Amino acid sequence: MEKLINNILELIKIPSISGHQQEIAEVLDLIEHRLAPENALVRRFEFEGASTVMLLANTDGLDFDILTVGHLDVVPAEKKLFEPIIKDGKIYARGSLDMKSAVALNIEALRYAMDKDIRFGVLITTDEETTSNGIKALVKNENIKATVVFDTDAGDLYTLCDKAKHPVSVKLSATGENAHSSRPWEGVNAVMHLIDCINDLEKDFVRYEKGGRQPENIWQDTMVVTAVNSPTTYNVVPNYAEARINFRLTEKTSLEELKNELQLACDKHACSYEILLSSRGVYMDCNNPEIAAYKKIAEQVLGQPLQIRQMCGGTDARMFSDYSVIIMHSLNGNNAHGDGEYVEIDSIYKLLEIEKKYIDAFIEKQKSRK
Length: 370
Description:
Layout lengths: L1 H12 L7 H15 L5 E5 L7 E5 L5 E9 L13 E3 L2 E3 L3 H18 L6 E6 L7 H9 L3 E7 L7 E6 L1 E10 L3 E2 L9 H12 L20 E8 L6 E2 L2 E10 L5 H14 L2 E8 L3 E2 L5 H14 L4 E5 L13 E4 L4 E2 L7 E3 H25 L1
Parallel strand pairs: 3-6, 3-7, 7-17, 8-16
Antiparallel strand pairs: 1-2, 2-6, 4-5, 5-19, 8-15, 9-13, 9-14, 10-12, 11-13, 18-19
Helix pairs in contact: 1-3, 3-8, 5-6, 7-8
């Protein structure tokens, strides 16, 4: 097990920040030439407009029984945060929790599965913190499939996530007519039309804020205005304004329903909208036989029940949500993206033990069906 921790430390020491292609190539080289199990098939996928995707597997096909999904890119940090410190049973460093430790343990799970009667793969992306273009292109261009997907970037050791929201990014625009700001009646103020449109949308998407209104639970559709801009000077009625809005949708609201709401508000206030980004949500049922089996194994290993929660953020595993069972379970730690980011070492060993036991259970179930 010391080797697993050393592998994590080696991964952390390479500052593979999103977009830093030389360092990303270096960390992928480390995996391919030093950390990958003997005889594992290692493939790299390159797509225009995307960062490299790596796949390690014990089979030469793209149809898996179990596929783990993780990423090696990290958010920017000071140089010292790429010098890991082990203290009080924790690894402190950028990427320790998000999510190089989980990638390393998934590679160990592959090592365990190498000679077993199971098709097991480890998928590693390198642009999850920015665009996720790599996994989008992979799913679009390659016929990669999996019965079960381990998403070790959601939840924690004692929390299983069953749902993740559908992120939608929108540009809202308004046009008007310039006039001197001392004679506003001679112009049409694009900023005010934009504000009116936003206010109209907030009738259906409640505004939440620290110190203000709070949701009864986090599983709510949300809308956040992330930017407002108008390229005019202080003494001119603006003839153009735009805003960026980020929506996070539950299964209660489809993309088409959101588009209808946007169109109604835009028509009413002389605005227009453009969908800049739309992915998909993950909506799993914990009564699914695969998730229930995994949950039982995890609770046996941990000696306590798992909590079931939802997550507001997105995950690369969402790209498989249409046809795979996604199990969202991760490590204990805190301060992902923060200066004090850490992962609990014991949770690394426990999650690996759970994955191994699930692999064995999956194989036994397949045998019983033959």
